[in-house]
Amino acid sequence: MPYQKVLIAVDSSEHSMRVAEHGVNLSSQLGASIAVVYVIDTAKVNNEGKSGRLPQEQIAKLKIEADKIIDSIAKQINVNEFERFLPEGKPSKGIVSIASDWEADLIIMGTRGKTGIKRLLLGSTAENTIRLSNTPILIVPSKS
């Protein structure tokens, strides 16, 4: 199966640059179209441990920041032609939803390699995405 549409998932981490580099390099070798997704995580936990949703004005600020991050990554890796998606919600669900809607043939994303308590409490976006997705996924480890 040829990869014609590659979805690159990024966030605010420094590792996202490496993920994007891998995605762009592979896409150019394959002649594939590129889309970049940055999911605005709207979940919040207050001081009492209750979960909820971030206020809309804070979400709007996060979208502006996400747009700037995508622009910065695109400029640094010298890519001009790509689609961008900024969905709101849980990152793994947002990535899978965009991959399905855009009909991506491959998702490229990173993993930070959380272990122990952090992984138990926060989970792994990469692991959750793998569980939810029907689209093949290429994982770029943070130590690569």
Provide the CATH superfamily. Answer: HUPs
**Main beta sheet strand tally, sense and closure:** 5 strands, parallel
Order of helices and strands: EHEEEHEHEHHE
Residues in β-strands, percent: 15-25%
Question: What can you see in these coordinates?
Answer:
The protein is an alpha/beta fold. Helix 1 (15-30) links the parallel strand 1 (5-9) and strand 2. It starts with a strand and ends with a strand. Helix 3 (91-102) packs across helix 5. The chain has a five-stranded parallel sheet, sandwiched between helices. A two-stranded antiparallel sheet has the order 3-4. It has one domain (5-141): HUPs (Rossmann fold, 3-Layer(aba) Sandwich), CATH 3.40.50. The protein has five helices and seven strands, in the order βαβββαβαβααβ. The mean pLDDT is 88.
Brief summary of the model shown:
The protein has five helices and seven strands; from the N terminus they run βαβββαβαβααβ. The protein has helices at residues 15-30, 56-76, 91-102, 116-122, 125-132, and strands at 5-9, 33-37, 43-45, 51-53, 83-85, 106-111, 137-141.
List keywords for this structure.
two-stranded antiparallel ribbon, alpha/beta, 5 helices
Strand-helix topology:
Blueprint: E1 5-9, H1 15-30, E2 33-37, E3 43-45, E4 51-53, H2 56-76, E5 83-85, H3 91-102, E6 106-111, H4 116-122, H5 125-132, E7 137-141
Parallel strand pairs: 1-2, 1-6, 2-5, 6-7
Antiparallel strand pairs: 3-4
